């Protein structure tokens, strides 16, 4: 099991966690990354400077997801698995559309199939839309976005640094 976290202001272990991503990597012969949960704590993002440097909550989401997928790639994985959870609200359809934009494809809906769904419900802990993605496709699509964000953040830090 793996947990990746991002902290406010780069303040090391003492800084507040503003995002977490849980899951596990099953290297070949399985070759999958199981993306279990992602939590972004908007209330912990403080100040206009920090909000501007993050740009959006989606920036944190992309960062955590891409870092996780990169770890999976380095472990020889080729497939990403996730469940777009359906908590019975209208947000579930938006979540599925969001993952589609990220490059994931629907495998099936979990929760309508009775005993057929039991294994998925035990693995994922809920109902929703099972989706898969390809590690290489995800990194090709989103790796450049992360590199551009990192370069922009680095420039912002360099601009804000006092001159010697």
From TrEMBL:
It comes from the Eukaryota. PANTHER family: OS10G0350800 PROTEIN (PTHR36897:SF2), OS10G0351100-LIKE PROTEIN (PTHR36897). This is N-acetyltransferase domain-containing protein. It comes from Mantoniella antarctica. The lineage of its organism: Eukaryota, Viridiplantae, Chlorophyta, Mamiellophyceae, Mamiellales.
């Amino acid at each position: 099991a793996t947990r990746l976290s991002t902290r406010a202001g780069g303040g090391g272990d003492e800084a507040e966690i503003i995002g977490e991503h849980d899951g596990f990597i099953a290297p070949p012969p399985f070759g999958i990354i199981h993306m279990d949960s992602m939590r972004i704590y908007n209330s912990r993002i403080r100040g206009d400077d920090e909000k501007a440097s993050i740009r959006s909550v989606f920036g944190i989401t992309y960062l955590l997801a891409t870092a996780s997928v990169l770890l999976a790639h380095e472990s020889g994985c080729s497939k990403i698995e996730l469940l777009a959870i359906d908590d019975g609200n209208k947000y579930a359809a938006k979540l599925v559309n969001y993952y589609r934009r990220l490059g994931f494809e629907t495998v099936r809906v979990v929760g309508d199939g009775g005993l057929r769904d039991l294994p998925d419900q035990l693995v994922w802990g809920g109902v929703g839309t099972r989706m898969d993605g390809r590690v290489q496709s995800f990194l090709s699509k989103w790796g450049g976005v992360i590199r551009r964000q990192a370069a922009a953040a680095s420039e912002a830090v360099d601009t804000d640094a006092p001159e010697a």
